[in-house]
Amino acid sequence: MDSLIRPLIPNKAAFGRHETFSLRYSWLTKGFQAFQHDNKIFTSDEATVRLGVGKNMVNSIRYWLRATQILETKPEGLQTTEIGKAIFSEHGWDPYLEDEATLWLIHWLVCSNAELATAWFWFFNCFHKSEFTVDEAANALVEFVNQNLTGKHSERTVKHEINLILRMYSQTRSMAKLDLEDVLDVPLVSLRLISLGGTTQHYISRPERRQNLPLDVIGFAVNEVFNQRKVSSLPIADLMYGEKHGIAIGSAFRLTEGELLSKLEDLIKRYPGIFNINETAGINQLFRDKDDVESLSFLRHHYESREGIYA
Predict the structure, then answer these.
(1) How many separate domains does the chain show?
(2) Model's pTM, two decimal places?
(3) CA 307 to mean position of chain CA atoms
(4) What span, in angstroms and rounded, lies between the C-alpha atoms of 289 and 272?
(5) What are the per-10-residue average pLDDT scores of the chain (311 residues)?
(6) Domain limits at 222?
(7) Which of 9, 88, 124, 273 is the most interior residue, by most CB within 10 Å?
(8) 259 within a domain of the structure (yes/no)
(9) 131 vs 107, 195, 208, 283, CA distance in Å?
């Protein structure tokens, strides 16, 4: 089956297309539903009025809708995706991001999109320093770009991506100058994947247990990796750290090795007959016994088993 994962391709990379704006709480819902009502909204002269933002923000909303893969570009133009419709339609599973699972899912959809969110893909899948300065991360990203990507990429623009990642995922020191409303409008900060260090320009992003990471989001991600790789088994180490420059679930969610294994074992218990773990040639591997499993089925289980608005 098809996968939403967009792996790293040297001649397909994107930097700076967000107009320097980080993702905000209301943008995905507002932009997605506006697009459903009018698929020409982002090229319309009335876009700024109808979306209630400036022109650069209109472009940024369009970018984030594509980076989170709830809209996709087809030969015939921009279109909604199945996952976009399932979650963000007016009667979708969680159009207003009231369930933290949706934030974890958005994070996964961005950091598994190497084509449009190249810096996010690199930071969460390939950059393994648990403590770093802004300059260390920025210089490491520039080195990665120079060694692995083709085409011309402005060093300044590439470095600036690190600042935006930190703004999206941590209470950066610059936020002290922002209004409380602006700080609260950055949804992925609540995942606590990046935190402030003890000194200026110092940050921490280390593996932890992540007990608030829903199992069904892990199930979705694991199934997506199987679909993208088109295999029936994957070494646990690959799921933790990825192939060379590949998607790494453990790293993307900043999980410890023990916690990833524990979540995989819980996944097997929840979905018997789909996944199992066996040792082959001395290597622990996760097997998928069915190759027709729909990734959305894991999310459906999560949202539709919830009480209230998710029932």
Answers:
(1) 2
(2) 0.94
(3) 26
(4) 10
(5) 92 96 94 96 94 95 98 94 97 96 98 98 96 97 97 96 95 54 74 88 95 97 96 95 91 97 97 92 91 95 71 32
(6) 215-310
(7) 88
(8) yes
(9) 20, 10, 14, 30
